[in-house]
Amino acid sequence: MDQYLQWKEILASGGDVTAWQSFYVKFYQAFIESDRWLQYVKGVGTTLYVTAMALIIGIILGVIVAVVRTAHDQQRPGHRNPVLGIVNAVFKVYVTVIRGTPMMVQLMIMGFVVFATSRNFTLVGGLSLGINSGAYVSEIIRGGLMAVDSGQMEAGRSLGLNYIDTMRFVVVPQAVKAILPALGNEFIVLLKDTSLISVIAGKELLYAARGVISRTYEAMFPLLGAAAIYLVLVMIFTWLLGIFERRLRASDRR
Q1: pLDDT for 5
Q2: How far apart are alpha carbons 14 and 11 in whole angstroms?
Q3: pTM of the predicted model, to two decimals?
Q4: Left if phi > 0, otherwise alpha if psi is -120 to 50, otherwise beta: which for 123?
Q5: Are 20 and 26 in contact, with CB atoms under 8 Å apart?
Q6: Can you list the pairs that 191-194 forms with residues at least 24 positions away whose Cβ atoms lie under 8 Å?
Q7: Cα 71 to Cα 84: distance, rounded to the nearest angstrom
Q8: Helix segments in 121-217, DSSP class H
Q9: Cβ of 116: how many Cβ atoms within 10 Å?
Q10: Would you say 143 and 65 are in contact if contact means Cβ atoms under 8 Å apart?
């Protein structure tokens, strides 16, 4: 500690220090001094919480939108449901608007306009990410459902199953295996997109790194540390997703 303070004073006064001494001082400032590593840990916890919340919202929205749009597209000619058509049109506008506008703009609209009176920016950020993810998840699921041969639906209906049961027991199990890699990729993108909520003061990992930068006036180590943590999280989730996919493939062989 004494050595750190001595080297820090020399560095601050513009004195000559070795590359190792400069590295040590900046690293100590970014992660160890005043227990700043705790800020990163807290930021990781918030990042995982926001990711989980956005993932749940995104999957729920995505499933609802995908099922409605698929049901609309699979209607037989002459048997069109007008209510389903209206709901499908609303969902189509939702998907078009969300996919056609930047995530950061959506966050700022939610944080500074829609929920301007709210101080819980982390919750607002998670909600915004969930709404954004729902549009992309819906297209992934819809693509998977539409990719299943139409004969599967006809076979289920011929066995006396209604539309919902046919989707549940025949179509969806086949579609899940096809869409899992894309859903896993969407989850990884969602995890990294949590860094955007710092623009509305959401207290996630990047917010913690920026807080350290404002105190040390040194950006390299806090940002490199945040990037390394994101990389480790992505690698862990990619590994877990790979295990899940291998188990699904193994179950197909039995």
Answers
A1: 63
A2: 5
A3: 0.84
A4: alpha
A5: no
A6: 191/47, 191/51, 191/230, 191/233, 191/234, 191/237, 192/230, 192/234, 193/103, 193/129, 193/132, 194/47, 194/50, 194/51, 194/54, 194/125, 194/129
A7: 8
A8: 121-147, 150-158, 163-166, 172-193, 205-216
A9: 10
A10: no
Q: Are 30 and 218 in contact (CB under 8 A)?
A: yes
120: alpha, beta or left? (left if phi > 0; alpha if psi -120 to 50): beta
For the record, the structure tokens of 105 come out as 């703009």
CA distance 200 to 194: 11
Kindly give the parts of the chain with pLDDT less than 50: none
The whole-number pLDDT of residue 215 equals 87
Taken as a whole, the chain contains a residue count of: 254
Q: Do residues 128 and 110 touch, judged by C-beta distance below 8 A?
A: yes
- Measured CA to CA in angstroms, residue 25 lies from 75, 187, 215 at distances of 67, 37, 14
